Amino acid sequence: LAEVQRIARTGFFEYDAATGNIVWSDEVFNIYGLDPGISPLTYDLMMSRYIHPDDAPMVDTVFTAALQNESVYELEHRIIRPDGSVRWLYNRAHPYFDENGELLRYIGTTLDITESKQREAETYEQLQHTKYLLTEAQKIVHLGSFEYIAETQQTVWSEEEYHIYGLDPAQPSPDYQTMLSSCIHPADAELLDRTFSSAMRESAVYELEHRIVRPGGEVRWVRDLA
Fold first, then answer.
1. Which residues pair with residue 213 across a beta bridge?
2. Distance CA 135, CA 131 (A)
3. Can you tell me the distance from the alpha carbon of 77 to that of 55, in angstroms, rounded to the nearest whole number?
4. Which one of 15, 81, 131, 213 is CB 3.0 to 4.6 Å from 33, fit for a cystine?
5. Is the full-model pTM beyond 0.70?
6. Cβ atoms of residues 125 and 28 within 8 Å
7. pLDDT digits (tens, 9 = 90+) for 109-161
8. What sign does the dihedral 128-91-49-25 (CA atoms) show?
């Protein structure tokens, strides 16, 4: 069992509801960067010495709520090892009761998810960079993108789509009917609606050139393809 914990970087812990004392497996000590066997280990000591100060209030709130509700405890949070390094942990624990239904203890697992969190952060940065490149590319070629949600008739516009229509990207994109009445040139609104409705019925490509009217009254020609 010790080898399995070491390989999986998953330790086991037990929390005594009556005393607040905690028992860790050797792998939990390893995860925390501590020598196995530190005793006594209490909840208060763990919170004050090992939990990242930015996460301590959240950890305490979640665990206290679990105790009060006698429910499963589950949380991701950071710790600070004695050498100053920060690690991400995932904890999950189940409550156990005596024959009278009184809470005795929590028994759970501690998993080191630091590498996973690092990959997650790197992926997020890559996505943000890709989003930036896409936004810049749309600006350069005056190409906006949009999504139409059939069930609600809501639209989702890219930043350049707002710029093409002369609208503020900070505002919600208009729904389909609002766009027809407020953004499309009155002489083209019926044609657009007829063309788009036909494409919807037939699950076909929608393609049309038409005019729009910006808030200041300026008329622009656009080409839609969806």
1. 219
2. 6
3. 6
4. 81
5. no
6. no
7. 999 998 888 888 788 888 888 777 777 777 777 889 899 988 888 889 998 99
8. negative
Task: Give me Rg for the CA atoms of the chain.
Answer: 28
Whole-number pLDDT of residue 7 = 62
Residue 143, helix vs strand vs coil = coil
Tokens standing for residue 215: 């808030």
Q: Distances in Å between the alpha carbon of 165 and those of 27, 159, 217?
A: 59, 10, 11
Token pair listed for 116: 């996973």
Question: How many C-beta neighbours within 10 Å does residue 125 have?
Answer: 10
Tokens of 17: 């509801």
What's the distance, CA 67 to chain centroid? Answer: 26
Nearest in space to 13 (alpha carbons), one of 101, 73, 67, 66: 73
Provide the β-strand partners of residue 9: none
* Residue 76 exposed, middle or buried by CB count within 10 Å (0-12, 13-18, 19+): middle
